Amino acid sequence: MKALSNVKDFLIDLEGTLHIGDQSIKGAVETIDFLRSKGYSIRFITNTTRRCRKTICERLSKLGFKISEREVFSAPIAAIRYIKKRSEELGLEPTCYLLYTGDVHRDFEESGLILTDEKPNFVVVGDAGENFTHTALTKAFRLLLEGAELIAMEKDRYWKSQAGLELGAGPFVVALEYASGKNAVLVGKPSRDFFMSVLADMNVKPEEAAIIGDDVNSDIGGGKAIGMKGILVKTGKYREEDLRKASVKPDVIIPSISSLMNLLT
Questions:
Q1: Does a cis peptide bond (omega within 30 degrees of 0) precede residue 190?
Q2: Are 93 and 87 in contact (CB under 8 A)?
Q3: What is the pLDDT of residues 187-244, one digit of tens each?
């Protein structure tokens, strides 16, 4: 396909694009194997904040994907890089109050960041699921008033689980912004720094890469904003209504990632 003629590298979303919950998208495993056989460089990107990178890879392995940790770039990894850099700039300890669920705390602890609820320098918000309680949000709000910076690992409005659409971290981040009067620093998709960091890691130019995802704003919008091609899949959280309302338009729309093989042969 002409729209993809200059593409040498792919950034591929995980949840909703390669799998939904514990079920892989039909043909997704074969598509990744195909891309590797053709010599394309690949990075797997995700705003998932419930799992550390090791657990993400273990889960993907169980679904049949052969993906290494170094190939995965997640919103928590982006948050860790930002906090380390910001702490050095300000001469502060990298102390964080982490609003989360799952085992994503392992990425933070293994990187040397300090998790605490006693006067942290950063309040970091991920998808905390049922842990988005009034108590937890009030704690985060008070820490922000005491001077902590607000970091949003993602601001997705919703995502699709096997049970259906569920609220993401976005609505809760906005609530904290409104209450505290502070603007969150977004480090996950569709942040420009997020995408540029992935491309820098691959040593490729934006015009040589394409983003494949199920979110027209977070995935396609983020990639196209820096000059990448955008391939939208009609799986996961894809909704026709979102596509109609979006200011950004994908270069290619396909039923699922498995359709990519036909476009590249």
A1: yes
A2: yes
A3: 999 999 999 999 999 999 999 999 999 999 999 999 999 999 999 999 999 999 999 9
